[in-house]
Amino acid sequence: MTLAVLAPRAGRRCHNALNTLHAAHYFAPELGHQLGALGVTHPRAVNFAVRSAALGPVGPGTVAATFYNYKYDLVAQHVPAVWATAAPADVLAARVRAVDAALRRLLGDQAVTSDGMAEAARLALRAAEACSRAGRPLYAAHADLPVPEEPHLAFWHAATLLREHRGDGHLAVLVAAELDGLEAVVTHTATGKGMAPPWVFTTRGWTREDWNAAQERLRGRGLLDASGELTERGVALREEVEAETDRLDRAPYEHLGANGVARLTDLAGGFARTAALAGAFPADLIGKG
Questions:
Q1: Is the pLDDT at 107 greater than 90, yes or no?
Q2: Once rounded to an integer, what is the mean pLDDT over residues 197-216?
Q3: End-to-end CA distance of the chain
Q4: Structure confidence by residue, pLDDT tens digits, 136-167
Q5: 77, 120, 170 from 71: Cα distances, Å
Q6: CA distances (Å), 133 to each of 39, 113, 184, in order?
Q7: Residue 284 phi, psi dihedral angles, 5° rounding
Q8: What digits encode the pLDDT tens for the residues 57-89?
């Protein structure tokens, strides 16, 4: 079969729209409510539990390795202790309930039950057919989960698969680029498109001292300048990292085809914008801050 030739970055643009909608649930109060009902109340424990539950009752090493940019010490404060409070299967069920409630609140019942949502689910699931488990632990674990029957939940599930598939490949590229977890965050933030430092400190467990030390290491490699901005070499490295991630993640979007990718990007982008306008994300989440 001849694969469709996609426009440059078409897969990345589609992923970005899908990932935005996927990520909204991490900030949704519904997630805290559902996990709180299971006895998991600390925000970091909630985050570690819902994203890693598909892997089973894993320890802090597995979570730190697969999440990549979280400080191990923070992970170890909550994992594996969280599994003594809530079993992974219960966490996964609570996550689906939270996503259902959050999407209905952010998008409205009309959008949730629309033909467009059903079409988006079909397209995203079709793309996910071409994802590969090899070397992609978070994707592989989520790919073993059943596809929900309701279209909006099936769409979110497929978006999760595509998000984790790209993410696992991205980590391989970061390792090859010799960027550790915090250095990856620092360079991404320096592009102006990454998480603002205060959010990194709060959610990833790093301190200002850790951040400053990472900047110094990056300056030593000629990737950051004295003010913390990317140098020409730093810009080139970030572009290379994203381009190589695109290459490793091309199969799902080639499988879907150029027209399907364009349509899925349009649908997912529309849902993501609606969610953002409904207040899905903190206003100060992104920036050099």
A1: yes
A2: 98
A3: 48
A4: 999 999 999 999 999 999 999 999 999 999 99
A5: 10, 35, 18
A6: 32, 31, 24
A7: -105, 20
A8: 999 999 999 999 999 999 999 999 999 999 999
Residue-wise DSSP of 147-205? PPSSHHHHHHHHHHHHHHHHHHHHHHHHHHTT--HHHHHHHHHHTTSSB-HHHHHHHH-
Cα–Cα nearest to 265, from 17, 5, 24: 17
Query: From CA 217, how far away is CA 233, in angstroms rounded?
Result: 14
135, two tokens: 């070397």
Res 231 pLDDT > 50? yes
CA dihedral 86, 90, 94, 97 (to 10 degrees): -170
Burial 61-82 (b: 16+ CB within 10 A, else e): ebbbebbbbbbeebbbbbbbeb
CB within 8 Å of 8: residues ≥ 6 apart: none
Query: Angle at the Cα of 81 (from 76 to 82), degrees rounded to 5?
Result: 105
Give the DSSP per-residue string, 69-100. SS-HHHHHHHTTHHHHHS-HHHHHHHHHHHHH
Q: Copy the structure tokens of residue 147.
A: 């596809």
Retrieve residue 127's tokens.
Answer: 């793309």
Question: What is the percent of the chain where pLDDT is above 70?
Answer: 99
Amino acid letter for position 193 = K
